[in-house]
Records
---
Amino acid sequence: MRYAIKGLGLSAALAAACLAGAAGTATAAPAHPEGLYAPSALVLTVGKGDDPATATVERAVVLRCSPAPGGDHPAPERACAELRSAGGDFASLVEAESDRVCPMVWEPVTVTADGTWDGRRVSYAHTFPNACVMADRAGAVFSF
Amino acid sequence: MRYAIKGLGLSAALAAACLAGAAGTATAAPAHPEGLYAPSALVLTVGKGDDPATATVERAVVLRCSPAPGGDHPAPERACAELRSAGGDFASLVEAESDRVCPMVWEPVTVTADGTWDGRRVSYAHTFPNACVMADRAGAVFSF
């Protein structure tokens, strides 16, 4: 039986569940106990192009922030601290501006962050006009 | 091959950077050279609920498949082999059916995969009606 209908078939499923229960079928329990912390694990990428869906990913690193900073990100402690102080809001991380002078060249670089932060799913993308602006604004999280 | 060509283009990029530097502009060069392989790094999660956006993530693992299988996934070699033989198509991984008898109980479990596969961004989610069906169909990739 396919479960493609998922939510739509809820009442039917519940009815079926009663029948199944009456028939004495064993109920499935999760194979692993739940963790004591909300997982935070992210895949961060940098790629050329201005469309996150088609940009060619050039570099990808893994950043873990719970239970402890880790992954192959070059500075997980700093990156996790930045993210934590921003409450996991990636947009606020790339907003900061400095006095650095960057050429006004359109060679777009797109950064993405996908995974889970504090137990919630994250899917973030931001396009910088060029690598200089990215280096200026991306902070520790996207510096790899 | 595409990536090899890019690597070769690096010297041209550096030359351009020198010229731009001579012109007095602060041109940014990428901080790191491009990799010679397309990155494959994924955050895989399992959570309760039928909506990937709101499901509470219970477990999250990292799976890396290039340059070598790794991450904190319990069986990265098998998971990467499965994904590779499926051409990175997560949907085809969860389609397989077996003879296992599962109760028809609606206790939805949602699995997600986010990150990058072969240099392309991946965002996949699938809801199983209950943990038994998940254990039956999820294969090595989502067995953690």
---
Amino acid sequence: MPMNALYAQSGGVTPVINASAAGVIAAARMHPNHIGRVYVAKNGILGVLHEELIDTSVLTNTDLAQLKATPGGAFGSCRHKIKTEAELARILAVFKAWDIGYFFYNGGGDSADTCLKVSELAEAAGYPLLAIHVPKTIDNDLPHTDNSPGFGSVAKYVATSVREAGLDVRSMAASSTKVFILEVMGRHTGWIAAASGLAARSEGEPPHLILLPEVAVDEGRLLAAVENTVMRYGYCVIVAAEGVKDTHGTFLSEAGGKDAFGHVQLGGLAPYLAGLIKTHCGFKCHWSVADYLQRAARHTASATDLAQAIAVGEAAVKLAVAGQGGMMVTIERLGEVPYTWDIGAVPLGVVANCEKPLPAEFIAADGFGITAAARRYFAPLIAGEAPPPYIDGLPDYGTWVWSIEAPCLPIFKP
Amino acid sequence: MPMNALYAQSGGVTPVINASAAGVIAAARMHPNHIGRVYVAKNGILGVLHEELIDTSVLTNTDLAQLKATPGGAFGSCRHKIKTEAELARILAVFKAWDIGYFFYNGGGDSADTCLKVSELAEAAGYPLLAIHVPKTIDNDLPHTDNSPGFGSVAKYVATSVREAGLDVRSMAASSTKVFILEVMGRHTGWIAAASGLAARSEGEPPHLILLPEVAVDEGRLLAAVENTVMRYGYCVIVAAEGVKDTHGTFLSEAGGKDAFGHVQLGGLAPYLAGLIKTHCGFKCHWSVADYLQRAARHTASATDLAQAIAVGEAAVKLAVAGQGGMMVTIERLGEVPYTWDIGAVPLGVVANCEKPLPAEFIAADGFGITAAARRYFAPLIAGEAPPPYIDGLPDYGTWVWSIEAPCLPIFKP
């Protein structure tokens, strides 16, 4: 009897993480001699700890197609870092109880660490487990892969939004708003913010200034750049990564003042910058914080990103069937014009808890823009449209109510 | 010799205002016996005051097609309320100098007032001018028209974004963010916020709470509703209109505390609500301010909205050719299932400086949701997709550099 597989989603979700799930499930069904049932843990690793498992054999091909077209984490995800030996032991106990021989964990750098720990524990215990990490992060900060599924779609959303909002500001700047600030995600790296630079096709087009965590923000230099941009082009569009820091290493978002309750404003970077620029330059400012809108925007997903999200799921199954555990699937760039890519793999040990910053050669000399090399890297990742089906004027996303398998083990008390 | 026409864009721009411009220009070309050249004032009425006119005969049919697919105000718009007799007299002087017999003004309620004043002044001066207002506002607050071009696309964007972000929050709520707040535009009315209610197809789907300017926010009731929603569904998605007020009539955005410079935070409604909910309920909150992203999102325009934006432009020309000045074009709803509509017109005097609030029968009894009547009203306005062409993964929007006609008159000094 072949052993069963378990798939789980971990960390912040993306517009295409469910496409990876569909890739895993569909590919596993092609190998009935190797893989028995495919279970999914509800809410990521929490579903393993609490033994809340979903049997995916209920999913039809129509469900799998709809998964590919639905953003968010259809099975639930979580932010939970495994801290204790008891938790690790519990995971192994649940795997044993459900005869899990394959563990497909779909996440970013933190999750790769969990995947590695589970893999090592199983090996130490002599339990036959192939743990394979399926990469996913909008932040694009996973090392040893050319890019991470989820990023291309968010990059496409942000570049599209900047191009659109830029046209708005441009048309009103003569008598109204002169500065527009878009705050984007990316944690400690500037991949997303940098990719917004694709919106500009020629000199003077937005975004005019990109603020990256990789370049400390000197407020004097920034204000001078804003004034210079407004003088030159009549308006200034700024994209700011949430993780930007000042020259003392302090997050600018933490400088954003306190709210009515005296709490430091979280994610208050854009309003902080607007206040700074209004005060020192006198320009009317508008600002936007895209937050989850960027991370869930399946309606403007990149076709390249979608294809890669599916491919990494399928490749994880191929690795498993080939007996290669303790690995993360990677995306390899083979050529740039035309863009070609393939799937690879690296040992989990070199991936876990690593962050890949934006390379210095992607950042323009003044620190406020991107280079031609960056454009060459980003361009293919946002290529192609992959709209979801629409019903009644809105994307027809799936929402599933899962039935949870009856547990085998006693309740886990951490 | 037929007299010339002048078209201008006014106030906040929309995803489809350029489609109205294309409608006016294309329709005017069909009536060479009535209408000579079609000029456009750069940056709205400011372009009239400063005699900065663009001759649209340079526009090819390809340009007109691209105008229909490009957000923002391609000719520039402005926020400028005519205040003095000298300004009005200047407008008339420019019209005389350029032999303008037709004035097509594309704006909202404030602009309708300008259009009316210009029309009345011309009449009093015995100058033959047909002034026709082409409606446009994302706020949907123009009276005497079923809806306003621009609104349907913004409604579609907001409902799409709420459905997407809702899936994101839902998938993470077990261990992370439980409350998500999206701040949307709409000035003093709740049309945009209310339309987001279309995202929910069944009980319990986001948005769970809609905060409308038409319903004073009692913070205690709001906090109880948030707690109740999280208890029931595990998470809570809130859409808040920028113009919501508390029970004392104060804008909640002004209660949002001060920024680092001691200034009241503009548009700080979403972070204010997040702080309030975090403090009183203890839930992790995320928030987004869509700002110009919603107003410029041509990539997700409503096909209905686009068709109506073109139609009101064309209809303005038909009114002009029929000799009917001092009017605003309107959209009339003829039937709901199937949705059918036609074009009408009302005298400008009944439109200018009026705001149409969300009707009471569109607001659910608890003040936090929309009724079936509201859904019937909103549903057809977001129907149909009308994506722009894409190049290199991004919408291929037009950007024009206009050549300005040499002025005839001395420089205007207000």
